[in-house]
Amino acid sequence: MKRVVLVGSDFSPSSLPPALRLRFFASHLPEFGWQPTVLTVDPRFYEAAIDPENARLLPDWLEVIRTGAIPQRVSRRAGVGDIGLRSLVHHALALDRLCRRGDVDLVFIPIPPNFPVLLGRLMYERHGVPYVVDYIDPWVDEYYARLPIQERPGGYKWRLSYALARILEPVALRHAAHLVGVSTSYTAPIIARYPWLTDADHTGIPYGGEPGDVEYVRRHPRRNSIFDPDDGAVHISYVGRGGADMHPTLRAVFAAVRAGLDQHPALFRRLRLHFVGTTYDPHWDGTYDILPLAREVGAEELVSEHPRRVPYLDALQIMIDSHALLAVGSDQPHYTASKIFPFILAERPLLAVFHRDSTVVDVLSRTGAGDAVTFSDEGPGAHVSSIHDHLLRLLSLPAGTRPATCWDAFDQYTARSMSRRLAAVFDDALRAAGPHVRAKGRV
Description:
Elements: E1 2-7, H1 17-28, E2 34-41, E3 63-67, H2 72-75, H3 83-86, H4 88-100, E4 106-111, H5 117-127, E5 131-135, H6 142-145, H7 156-173, E6 178-181, H8 184-193, E7 202-204, H9 211-219, E8 234-239, H10 247-263, H11 265-268, E9 271-276, H12 291-296, E10 303-306, H13 312-321, E11 324-328, H14 340-345, E12 350-355, H15 359-367, E13 371-375, H16 384-396, H17 407-410, H18 415-438
Parallel strand pairs: 1-2, 1-4, 2-3, 4-5, 5-6, 6-7, 8-9, 8-11, 9-10, 11-12, 12-13
Helix pairs in contact: 1-18, 4-5, 5-7, 9-13, 10-16
């Protein structure tokens, strides 16, 4: 069986999205001819909270190598918190040992964090091992760079981060065997940016849904600390990040809620909208991202925001306990919400408000798992009445209503199916590398 090292600074028991994505792939790759080893960091060095129960979702056979990292108390003195940078040397040494022993056919590195992608280039140069890079988020993020100067993030950190990204990304990708992204819209700008890359060099592979995780939570219920599902209110939840790129969509949602309060006060006053895990920052400073938007239209009494991320299994419990789910999209057409797959698996009525070009719209259309209000250049604000009508329908549904999801159609979006696609990318990358490359440091 071919051997791949999955390099992820965050891994189980972390609940961060990159950690979940690596676990999904690692669990299913052997079925398609690839034996994974996960190279990660000892959880003692994580900044984000961990959930030890996540470890129960790992396959017993999976080899996980955990290294040290520069402690936060040391790195923070230099203004560095990035786990990928703090563990870069530790991972380089461990990966080099594996490659020298001939135990690696390919290296797979997701970003963020971004700096570990340099390890792929390093192992290629030293040992001839091909590497595949996975874009969960952009490294060179032009979103803020396109904004007027006065609207860009303040301070030196964003400017330094953007400058380093422009310098280091081409260095890291110069000999990448292939690029993977949660959507090709994430990788297409990279293909256009660097002349040595072509359309054949990137593949879109979404997160996928892991049915076993939802089944696990149903068998082992957890305490819901956000709301009481039996208090007589209609609880509609959004679990995921916030951010300025989502504000137009959220404003449209809250305008629809305000309209509902004005037109159907008795029904809409039963509504409770919960926004959970809206910031990735483990050092939340007390600033709310979403609640002020509800306050603008006088809908804050129906809205609660819990900015700190909750553990993955808690998030699944919140979805399962909700009467319905809300998914809100970005003003960036390429935005692909990985949360859509566990939302579907939770089997709750679902309303999504997304740009029409987002892959979320296609997923819901194919599976019939929820309704979508879509917008384009006119923006979500032009669709307030449609959002209102959909919310009115959700509030009128009998308790326990489940969507008529086509599970045969959903099968193509499972973590297993995504792992099959990734294994095919690995096979092609290994064939393209050829024995003359792979023999460099191994024979």
